[in-house]
Amino acid sequence: MSKNYDDTWLCEKLKDLPYSACITDPNQPDNPIVFVNDQFCEQTGYTREQAIGRNCRFLQCVESDQDEVRRIREAIDAGEEVSADVLNRFADGGLFWNRLSIKPIHDDAGQIQRFMAVQMVLKDNPYETLAEDKRRSDTALSELHHRLKNHLTLIHSSVRLQMRDTGETDGLVGVLNRIQSLQSLYSGMRQGIEAPSEMDDVDFFNYLSSICAAIAGLDENITFDQLVPEEPLMMDIDTASQVGMMVAELVTNSMRHAFDDNGGKIVLRGEVSDGKVLVAIEDNGRGLGADQEEKLGSGLGGKILKQTAKSLSAELDFNPSSEGMSVSLWLPLDRPKEDD
Ligand SMILES: Cc1cc2nc3c(=O)[nH]c(=O)nc-3n(C[C@H](O)[C@H](O)[C@H](O)COP(=O)(O)O)c2cc1C
């Protein structure tokens, strides 16, 4: 029984840890604390005498999430490890988010004799931070959609005007059709974002290249080329559509700013190496002067691209040169999924 269980070795181990830790005894009524290290007292503000003999729930408050508390209780009852973020109170009454990690300690016969836990104070509310990041990236995506829809509507009406003024229909009808297919491509992407789990993976570079080709095809002076791996890279539709939106914004930007009347060339470059995927949009346009380089990426479009890249845990680099512009996105392949 627990009275005979010698936990000195465990106390010794936890005593000098640089973070808060405690031990409880599940063989006593209500699983009370039997040991806390100095960091526990420093972190919570409770003295050893105030903590020992009580169940750790004394740190909780009415705002603590009861579903999380139930999850912890069920794990402890089942003798399993559990981790959770719980809202707790310091001795001075202040609230803090406690990242808890609890483990059962077994004796040689496999009986649970103690539970031990380490506790970490989180700087931010983990749920708010997640929700805030998601909110920001959703706003960025909606803004991207909005801008793309506007670009398309503008092009659409200018083509129609041109058709009316010149009476020319050949060729322009084709352009109108391409705009329409782009518009449906964008609505498809939007649905992909809203219902990613119901959709299949897509051939990533093929998907990106069809977006680039469709946009670049709107101007006959622009040629489009792709340098991507032959082997298909399958990607979830959620990620693919977010990268697709970024690529569409970059290609549209190049078409608007990079070239004179003689047009030029846009290249989609793709690569897979070291667990990362490179997606780059390059043009051979006028590039940027040194004074303009600083401004690059600081406008609304740049901010949206950065926000979307952040939500994908990707690195975004703007590389202007005298020979044109290249924007590259390095996307990690083993990103944690949102619902993991
Ligand atoms: C070793 C150990 C350490 C714990 N530390 C904390 C803690 O720091 N903060 C907290 O809110 N709950 C902590 N708990 C969880 C509570 O003690 C308790 O198990 C939880 O509130 C669920 O049980 P209840 O519904 O009976 O309260 C800890 C549990 C164990 C076993």
Describe the structure in your own words.
The structure is a single chain. About 45% of the residues lie in helices and about 25% in strands. The chain has about 350 residues and is an alpha+beta fold. It has 2 domains: about 5-125, Beta-Lactamase; about 130-330, Heat Shock Protein 90, CATH 3.30.565.10. Residues about 190-200 and about 290-295 have low confidence and may be disordered. Helix 5 runs antiparallel to helix 6, helix 7 packs parallel to helix 8 (about 235-255) and helix 8 (about 235-255) packs antiparallel against helix 10 (about 300-310). The chain is built from 10 helices and 12 strands. The structure holds flavin mononucleotide. Flavin mononucleotide binds near residues 24, 86, 88 and 119.
Descriptors:
Heat Shock Protein 90, 10 helices, alpha+beta, binds flavin mononucleotide, about 45% helix, five-stranded antiparallel beta sheet, Beta-Lactamase, about 25% strand, five-stranded mixed beta sheet, 2 domains, about 350 residues, single chain
Cofactors, ions, other ligands: flavin mononucleotide
Overall 3D form: elongated
Structural class: alpha+beta
What is the CATH C level class of the largest domain, in words? Alpha Beta
Average of per-residue pLDDT values: 80
